């Protein structure tokens, strides 16, 4: 049976707040309260001759998450155009198909019971025996109907773009049997709950990623179609790690050939840090040294002004100053990677290097906020990411994760440093004839109805802090790791 969506009395309409593109999947309307509860279908431009039916997955306030061109053609719509729950061809055709299916498959159990009272294999049965057999047939028919319905939930939308299944277990079994390409296409879409709100995820690769578990050979890679939230790639780092501690007294450090001096009035214990949060476009002498008792401490011991001077003890083993100011572009050690792969009820950030400072994300780990049934079928896959050539000597890190950000190469951008093992996802390569970092509409992602910058995992390899991201026009660019940009992660069913 095909899914039928509830209608709405008198089909009340609302209007688009802003112009929308032909690929935009988050739409702001004037009053979402007049629309039916999601999931459902809506018609944009119902008062025109070129209307478009969309699948309505969820709403946050007046911002709708939709899948475009459920019927009709995805197109550009202007602000003020109507949108509402109109009666559609899908409604009529689904009703007809479902009625036809019922008429084709229905069983006249009364006639079967009567026949069974007459003869089975030449022997006459009484009414009681006939009723028992009839009841058994009814029970088995119910089991069969349930099985057919479950299978049809997977089969019904292949080729329509939307994959709406009752069980992630079914999808996993299809993948493990090596049949993913028979049921799904690159570009098909799933509805994935995150924080109990439905979001759209695209199939970006089939058997593209290699499971870390060598007993698994197949995979289905999904990426969220739009951004889920804003987050830092990583926080700014400390300038100095006090392995043996620092006594109260005068110290100095050298930067760009100039000595800067300060005096601690309180000691720093072993394992403590000195931070120097010198923000962009400010004078260095206005920045203070901030001491902490440990790498996890968020409350400072004290903040101390600096002056130009070389009195006291020189601090030798210093972090790269750019990372003190703008964070680290090392994805393997990043705060965002750590949070994305946490399934903790209360996420607790852990330092990966002596210079790391605490990064702040959602209270719960990302996996804890994702649909638990989906999490249960995800597997870790082998991934790679380049290292910068300034303070990490270039090369490449390898890692194994369930959740990850895409690389520059994987979205059909240019190579970034060492890219051994990385390859473009078919979802992105289908849109262009050649690699491009230029502004392209198929890389644009939205957050709360507006185009949003979204993080990649690749570093800009020529410095220690710049991290690649995709801009609001689809252009591949870079910025400091401390920036708070959109997150559109990927995961793999294995």
Structural write-up:
With 494 residues, the protein is an alpha+beta fold. Among the domains are: 80 residues, Thrombin, subunit H; 172 residues, no CATH class; 81 residues, no CATH class. It has 10 helices and 29 strands. A 6-stranded antiparallel β-sheet has the order 1-6-3-4-5-2, with no helix packed on it. Strands 7-8-9-10-29-22 form a 6-stranded mixed β-sheet. Helix 2 runs antiparallel to helix 3. The longest helix has 29 residues. The radius of gyration is 29 Å and the shape is elongated. About 4% of the residues have low confidence.
SSE layout and pairing:
Layout: E1 13-15, E2 26-28, E3 40-44, E4 52-60, E5 63-71, E6 82-84, H1 89-105, H2 109-118, H3 127-155, E7 162-163, H4 168-176, H5 180-183, E8 189-194, E9 197-206, E10 220-224, E11 229-232, E12 238-242, E13 249-255, E14 258-264, E15 272-275, E16 289-292, E17 302-304, E18 307-308, E19 313-314, H6 321-326, H7 335-340, H8 366-369, H9 372-375, E20 381-386, E21 396-401, E22 403-404, H10 426-429, E23 445-447, E24 450-452, E25 454-459, E26 466-470, E27 476-480, E28 484-487, E29 490-493
Parallel strand pairs: 7-8, 13-19
Antiparallel strand pairs: 1-6, 2-5, 3-4, 3-6, 4-5, 8-9, 9-10, 10-29, 11-28, 12-15, 13-14, 14-18, 15-16, 16-17, 20-21, 22-29, 23-24, 25-26, 26-27
Helix pairs in contact: 2-3
């Amino acid at each position: 049976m095909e899914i039928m969506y509830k209608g709405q009395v008198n089909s009340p309409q609302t209007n688009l707040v802003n112009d929308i593109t032909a690929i935009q999947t988050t739409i702001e309307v004037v009053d979402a309260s007049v629309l039916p509860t999601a999931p459902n279908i809506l018609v944009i431009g119902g008062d025109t001759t070129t209307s478009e039916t969309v699948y309505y997955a969820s709403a946050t306030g007046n911002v709708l998450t939709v899948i475009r061109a459920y019927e009709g053609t995805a197109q550009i719509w202007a602000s003020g155009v109507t949108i509402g729950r109109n009666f559609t061809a899908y409604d009529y055709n689904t009703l007809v198909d479902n009625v036809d299916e019922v008429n084709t498959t229905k069983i006249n159990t009364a006639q079967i019971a009567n026949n069974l009272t007459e003869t089975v294999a030449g022997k006459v049965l009484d009414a009681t025996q006939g009723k028992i057999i009839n009841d058994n047939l009814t029970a088995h028919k119910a089991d069969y109907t349930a099985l057919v319905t479950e299978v049809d939930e997977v089969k019904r939308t292949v080729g329509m773009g939307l994959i709406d299944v009752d069980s992630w277990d079914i999808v996993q079994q299809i993948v493990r049997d090596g049949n993913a390409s028979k049921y799904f296409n690159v570009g098909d879409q799933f509805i994935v709950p995150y924080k109990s709100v439905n979001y759209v995820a695209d199939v970006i690769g089939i058997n593209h990623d290699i499971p870390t578990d060598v007993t698994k050979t197949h995979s289905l890679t999904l990426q969220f179609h739009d951004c889920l939230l804003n987050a830092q790639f990583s926080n700014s780092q400390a300038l100095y790690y006090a392995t043996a501690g620092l006594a109260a007294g005068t110290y100095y450090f050298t930067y760009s050939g100039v000595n800067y001096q300060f005096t601690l009035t309180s000691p720093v214990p072993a394992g403590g840090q000195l931070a120097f949060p010198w923000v962009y476009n400010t004078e260095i002498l206005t920045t203070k040294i901030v001491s902490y008792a440990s790498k996890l401490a968020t409350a400072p011991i004290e903040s101390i002004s600096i002056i130009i001077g070389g009195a006291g003890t020189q601090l030798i083993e210093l972090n790269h100053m750019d990372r003190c100011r703008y964070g680290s572009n090392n994805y393997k050690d990043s705060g965002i990677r750590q949070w994305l792969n946490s399934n903790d009820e209360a996420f607790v950030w852990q330092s990966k290097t002596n210079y790391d400072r605490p990064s702040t994300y959602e209270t719960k780990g990302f996996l804890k906020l994702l649909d638990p049934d989906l999490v249960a079928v995800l597997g870790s896959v082998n991934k790679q990411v380049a290292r910068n050539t300034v303070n990490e000597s270039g090369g490449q890190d390898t890692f194994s994760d369930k959740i990850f950000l895409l690389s520059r190469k994987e979205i059909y951008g240019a190579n970034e440093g060492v890219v051994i093992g990385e390859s473009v996802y078919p979802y992105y390569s289908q849109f262009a004839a050649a690699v491009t970092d230029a502004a392209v509409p198929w890389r644009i992602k939205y957050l709360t109805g507006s185009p949003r910058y979204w993080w990649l995992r690749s570093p800009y390899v020529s410095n220690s802090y710049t991290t690649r991201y995709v801009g609001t026009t689809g252009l591949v660019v870079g910025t400091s790791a401390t920036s708070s940009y959109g997150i559109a992660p990927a995961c793999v069913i294995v």
